[in-house]
Specification:
220 residues; two-stranded antiparallel sheet; 6 helices; 2 strands
Length: 220
């Protein structure tokens, strides 16, 4: 029944019943991540991979449920799902790249290939996010939220939108590209420092994006 449970909460049209399943899936996802970490530390590779794959699947389904819960604000469930999935990849990818950079600081002889590939993946994800922003801007939401007193009457008038673009997409893209080049040149300390800043920018950008969503009904 929750798939038809559409309500207006504080001026926002949402599928209220989908939030409960989404929360339950994220709890299971966190538990699975804990199991994966424990098994990995114990050297149990195969069970660890199974736990990791299972928790990843649960997280993806949780994102789908969350995207559906917020989909009345947007042009469709697909736009919201793609937005939150790309956001998860961006935050996870840049955080992992920053963490990986520290291994090179303590073990300089490691191959630079993993960090090269990971920073390249983050660049691709940021490019996909930028493309999704363009698509979601051009595809208007089905219902605009009724939020009285919201700062900025539209997307272009909202400074959070421009901060989202500049701080959350353009700035980390430049930093990640610089980190990618630095890693190729074996300058791992520089790459790690750049990734620290890029991670903060990506996280700040995602916070801004969620704020813009609830004011303009555009998943940026």
């Amino acid at each position: 029944a929750w798939v038809r449970d559409r309500e207006v909460v504080s001026g926002y049209a949402v599928h209220q019943g989908a939030f409960g399943p989404a929360l339950g899936l994220f709890v299971l996802f966190a538990a699975g991540c804990g199991a994966y970490a424990a098994l990995s530390f114990r050297g149990e590779r195969r069970p660890g991979l199974i736990a990791g794959a299972s928790s990843s699947a649960l997280g993806l389904v949780g994102l789908a449920a969350l995207g559906y819960a917020l989909s009345p604000l947007t042009w469709g469930a697909a736009g919201m799902l793609l937005s939150v999935a790309a956001a998860a990849l961006a935050v996870g990818g840049i955080s992992l790249a920053m963490t990986l950079g520290h291994w090179y600081l303590v073990t300089p002889r490691l191959s630079n290939r993993p960090l090269n590939e990971l920073t390249a993946l983050v660049l691709i994800v940021l490019a996909v996010q930028t493309a999704l922003v363009v698509v979601n801007i051009l595809a208007p939401g089905r219902e605009a939220p009724d939020v009285s007193g919201a700062f900025g009457s539209g997307l272009g008038a909202n400074p959070a939108f421009w901060l989202r673009i500049g701080v959350g997409l353009v700035f980390p893209s430049v930093l990640t590209w610089m980190a990618h080049v630095s890693s190729r040149e074996q300058a791992m300390m520089s790459a790690t420092g750049l990734l620290y800043i890029a991670m903060g920018a990506v996280i700040a950008g995602e916070v801004l994006a969620r704020g813009v969503l609830f004011v303009t009904a555009v998943p940026v």
